[in-house]
Amino acid sequence: MRIACPYCGERSLDEYLYSGDATVRRPDFASPTAQADFVKYVYERKNSPGQHRELWYHAAGCHAWLVVTRDVSTHIITAVEPAKDVALGTASSMKDTA
Ligand SMILES: [Zn+2]
User: Fold this and answer.
1) Which residues surround ligand 1, an ion (CB under 5 A)?
2) Distance 24 CA to ligand 1 centre (A)
3) What's residue 93's pLDDT?
4) pTM for this entry
5) Could you tell me the distance, in angstroms and rounded to a whole number, from the CA of residue 43 to the centre of ligand 1?
6) Is there a domain that residue 32 lies in?
7) Region 16-20: what's the mean pLDDT?
8) CA 69, CA 46: separation in Å to the nearest integer?
9) 57 lies in a domain?
10) Is residue 89 within 8 Å of 81, Cβ to Cβ?
11) What CATH number should be reported for the domain holding residue 68?
12) Helix (H) or strand (E) segment spanning residue 37
């Protein structure tokens, strides 16, 4: 599998570190249900087929955090976006890669 970093171009998977689901949000530690919320946040994940949005770190490249949209059944990547753009709501699909 190869990932097209928006800054470095297409690179081997060996240059990246997978960091998990990009759609989950860290719970509020001050919430009265914080303990249960953190258990769910850390341990309860769906493992469904199809497209996932994943957080990847370009460790051997530009050190950027990226949100990769990938079909976990076929490994086809349909979008690679800088995580900061996703967080700021300014992201758009940048690359199509197989
Ligand atoms: Zn990069």
Assistant:
1) 5, 7-8, 58, 61-62, 64
2) 23
3) 53
4) 0.81
5) 29
6) no
7) 95
8) 16
9) yes
10) no
11) 3.30.2270.10
12) helix 34-43
**Contact 72/18 with Cβ under 8 angstroms?**
no
pLDDT at residue 19, as a whole number:
94
* Average pLDDT along the chain: 91
Domain range holding 65?
Answer: 1-23+48-98
In one-letter notation, the amino acid at residue 71 is D
- Of residues 96 and 88, more confidence is placed in 88
Please check the confidence at residue 64 and state whether its pLDDT lies above 60.
Answer: yes
Ligand 1: centre distance to CA 37 (Å): 33
Q: What is the mean pLDDT of residues 24-52?
A: 93
DSSP 61: T
The Å distance, Cα 38 to ligand 1 centre, comes to 31
Task: Give the whole-angstrom CA distance, residue 98 versus residue 96.
Answer: 7
**The amino acid at 66:** L
